[in-house]
Amino acid sequence: MSRKIHIYGNWKMNQLTSDIYQFFEELEDDKLAELKCQAGIAPQFPHLSLVKEKALTLGIKVGGQNCSHKNSGAFTGDTSPETLKDLELDFVLIGHSERRTVFNESNELINEKTLLALSLGLEVVFCIGETLEERESNKTFEVLKAQLDEGLKGLPKEKQSDIIIAYEPVWAIGTGVVASPPQAQEAHAFIREHLGSKHGFDEKSLIIQYGGSVKPGNALGLLSLPDIDGALVGGASLKPSDFYELLKVGSELTP
Ligand code: PGA
């Protein structure tokens, strides 16, 4: 594989200030300097500046877990992608399954957010994935296709390289039930082929992360697969030793 492995931590609604100080204290700078893969962390909004400051010298990208579909205005409680850019952040997660299901975000809204965030120069980690019910009724590819086609509609060609796709089967998120390597590889190959043939993406350079119960113990099996270029990690990214182990696996597999 010729692509750089990208391991991003999604901290979700976890970590208090003291946990963040401890996290960075335990991550050893000299060991991180040897890593070849790209690391990223998405903390809660109020902690973005603190994490950015801590991560700056470690080469870890920092991003938001979500953003608004507008840049400014009367949207109480929302955070503008322009503000994320203003804070010199690197990326934003868009369309995470928890946003889709708990907050009812539609493909149309996700599309608006994606185009806006990209237009501001943010990297977008575009999350897709099927539910267990959809998988069991053989609708996985149909669902992934709709999420990609509707969510990436109108995407300017020059912005394609700023997108990372995160394939996260909903049934694997936070459940401890990781997708089997063949299941994950099949979905990733489908996504790569579809984005290449229908959307004109450069299939060779496209980064597709797998997400859903990734742990140090199962990372190598997944990341060694031909179409898996990284991981979006929830639970295991909260513990510095686990996060570091994942980065080590990613680095070993990065050319
Ligand atoms: P998990 O979460 O690693 O805890 O399953 C992944 C995610 O939601 O991005």
Describe the structure.
By secondary structure, the chain is an alpha/beta fold. The protein has a single domain, classed as Aldolase class I (TIM Barrel, Alpha-Beta Barrel). It is 41% helix and 15% strand. The chain contains 11 helices and 8 strands. The protein has an 8-stranded parallel barrel with strand order 1-2-3-4-5-6-7-8, surrounded by 6 helices. Strand 7 (207-211), helix 10 (216-223) and strand 8 (230-233) form a beta-alpha-beta unit. Helix 6 packs across helix 8 (140-151) and helix 10 packs parallel to helix 11. The longest helix is centred in the C-terminal third of the chain and has 19 residues, at 181-199. The protein starts with 5 loop residues before the first strand and ends with a helix. The mean pLDDT is 96. The structure holds 2-phosphoglycolic acid. 2-phosphoglycolic acid binds next to strand 8.
Quick rundown:
This protein is of the alpha/beta class and 255 residues long. The protein has helices spanning 17-26, 29-33, 48-55, 81-86, 97-102, 107-119, 132-136, 140-151, 181-199, 216-223, 240-252; strands at residues 6-10, 38-42, 60-64, 91-94, 123-128, 163-167, 207-211, 230-233.
| Most strands sheet | 8 strands, parallel, barrel
Which fold does the CATH topology refer to?
A: TIM Barrel
Structural domain count: 1
Small molecules bound in the structure, each named once: 2-phosphoglycolic acid
Secondary structure tally: strands: 8
